């Protein structure tokens, strides 16, 4: 199946790998959010920040190795860190809007933000963090 997707369109194949990795990241992040928010009782925005801090390195390695097949570099990790920080800030603002503005329960609000954040992270990772100049075949 992967060979078929790769031959149809290389970006579709890459995007399918990103979605699979994204599901792993989203599931792990969601479990961490529930742990920090529901189990430990942290404020939902602080729990969101803790998800970023605790998952940043693993998410980078998963994207670098499996999705984009890029070479290891401190520049790529630096770009990834900036990317994650910006999307964590944006996601926190979006989460705050859902919870405070629309009175959505924090766990549901976190789920709503995942789609927007996942799309943005994919596009910025594709065109900036792991641009084609640092990929291996």
Quick tags:
about 140 residues, 5 helices
| N-C termini distance | 19 Å
Question: What is the average of the pLDDT values?
Answer: 83
Question: Percent range for helical residues?
Answer: over 70%
The best one-word shape is: elongated
Poorly predicted tracts of residues: none
What is the strand content? under 5%
Kindly state the number of beta strands: 0
Major sheet, described briefly? none
Radius of gyration: 16 Å
String of helices and strands? HHHHH
* Helical/strand content category: mainly alpha
Number of helices: 5
Question: Overview of this structure, please?
Answer:
The chain has five helices and no strands. With 137 residues, the chain is mainly alpha-helical. Helix 1 crosses helix 2, helix 2 runs antiparallel to helix 5 and helix 3 packs antiparallel against helix 4. The two termini are 19 Å apart. The relative contact order is 0.14.
